[in-house]
Write a structure and sequence with these properties.
Structural class of chain B: mainly alpha
Number of helices of chain A: 7
Distance between the termini of chain A: 42 Å
Mean pLDDT of chain B: 88
Strand content of chain B: under 5%
Shape of chain B: flat
Low-confidence stretches of chain A: 1-7
Distance between the termini of chain B: 24 Å
Number of domains of chain A: 1
Order of helices and strands of chain B: H
Largest sheet of chain A: none
Helix content of chain A: 55-70%
Radius of gyration of chain A: 19 Å
Shape of chain A: globular
Low-confidence stretches of chain B: none
Mean pLDDT of chain A: 90
Largest interface: A-B, 43 and 26 residues
Strand content of chain A: under 5%
Oligomer: heterodimer
Number of strands of chain A: 0
Largest sheet of chain B: none
């Protein structure tokens, strides 16, 4: 996140607070705008097409999780890269804003988890710019919200017993398992709601 | 095991409170936090 690289911070005398504001604001606004655009786009699709897509994607979600649980490697469709380091030369606020936009929208850098696709797909199939903006904005705000814990909470709250990495940023295996389980539940719930 | 129980409990609450929409919102929240483990 904000402090995940050894590259020069490009501080230019600007403290962390304005950068954190730019970072999280850009993320939330960018995510909400992306969700609204997807909702608007979804509204152009016929209702039966959206219903059919929801059913097919729910079945696909269940299949992906079951395959993964069976030990089959199902790589996430993504650009497996971080946000560009060159953005650090765009000035401290330029870097924070670009990074926030990219991470808030999430599609142009490492996604990591199949569950991520629930966010844009739901925004699209909601066919509602307001619902899309609310869901995507919530995701974006939370994804980048950790910066406020790092800045405002005492280190003892987030540092844990060893090391200086936030306690919530450890355990990628647990994160994979939790997101897979959640995706399975979402897929099953949509299938039951549509077919039941 | 704790993660399984936590996700299952949260999913149950979300489903009971708002049906599939609640579960979708919970998904957005869980993946947002999970992505903070990415390198």
């Amino acid at each position: 996140m904000v402090a995940s690289s050894d590259v020069s911070r490009n501080q230019d005398g600007i403290g962390w607070l304005p950068k954190a504001v730019a970072f999280s604001l850009a993320a939330t606004v960018g995510g909400a705008a992306a969700g609204a655009a997807l909702g608007l786009l979804g509204g152009m699709l016929a209702a039966p097409a959206r219903a059919a897509a929801a059913l097919a994607l729910a079945a696909l979600a269940v299949l992906v999780v079951l395959l993964r649980m069976a030990g089959v490697r199902v790589p996430v469709l993504q650009r497996d890269r971080e946000t560009p380091q060159r953005w650090m030369h765009a000035g401290p606020l330029g870097w924070a804003t670009r990074n926030g936009l990219a991470l808030g929208i999430g599609a142009t850098s490492r996604i990591g988890f199949w569950l991520w696709y629930v966010v844009p797909v739901t925004a699209l199939l909601s066919a509602s710019p307001r619902s899309g903006a609310a869901l995507y904005g919530l995701y974006s705000a939370l994804r980048t919200g950790g910066v406020w814990v790092l800045l405002l909470a005492p280190a003892a709250v987030w540092r844990g017993r060893n090391g200086d990495w936030p306690i919530w940023a450890r355990g990628i295996a647990t994160a994979r398992f939790a997101t897979d389980l959640c995706l399975l539940l979402v897929g099953a719930a949509v299938l039951v709601a549509r077919l039941g | 095991m704790q993660a399984v129980l936590a996700v299952a409990a949260l999913a149950g609450v979300a489903l009971a409170a708002d049906g599939v929409a609640g579960l979708l919102m919970l998904s957005a929240m869980i993946v947002a936090i999970a992505q903070q483990t990415l390198p």
